[in-house]
Amino acid sequence: MHSTTRCFELTPGQDHDSITGYRLLHELDFSPGEVLADQAYDTNAILEFLQSRAITPVIPSKCNRRVNRPLDSETYKERHLIECFFNKVTNYRRLATRYEKTANMFMAFLTLLSIRLWLK
What's the pTM value of the predicted model, to 2 decimals? Predict the structure, then answer.
C-alpha cells in the first residue's frame, strides 16, 4: 500500500520549481519511500537530500548530466496522476485565467477545487 502526502504552495512565476521543491521536501516526513518528479527536480541538492533520508529518487536525468542515473520507468509512469490533476484544474476557467487577484483568494479556490477533485 502506498502512502501519499499532498501539499502545494503558491510561488512567484520567476521562482524555479526545484527551489520550492527542495524546501517542501524538508518539511515532509516520508522516509523511506520514493519521490516522483520531472527533470526540473534533477539537482544535486535534491538528490543528496533524498539519498540522506533513504528515499529513492524517481527523477529522469537532465540532458546535461555527464552520467545518467538509472530510472525506474514503471514507477515513473505513476506521475501521470499529477499531470491529470493539472489537466483537471485547468478545466476550471476561473482558476486557469486567474480571476482571483490576490494570492490568498487564489490559494483558497485552488484548495477548494483540490478537495472537490479528491472527493470525486
Answer: 0.73
Q: How confident is the model at residue 74 (pLDDT cuts 50, 70, 90)?
A: very high
CA dihedral 79→85→87→90, nearest 10 degrees, is -140
- pLDDT category at 7 given cuts 50, 70, 90 is low
Q: Render the chain in DSSP notation, one character per residue.
A: ------------TTS-HHHHHHHHHHH----SEEEE--GGG--HHHHHHHHHTTEEEE-PPPTT-SSPPP--HHHHGGGHHHHHHHHHHHTSHHHHTT---SHHHHHHHHHHHHHHHHH-
Residue showing cell 520507468: 73
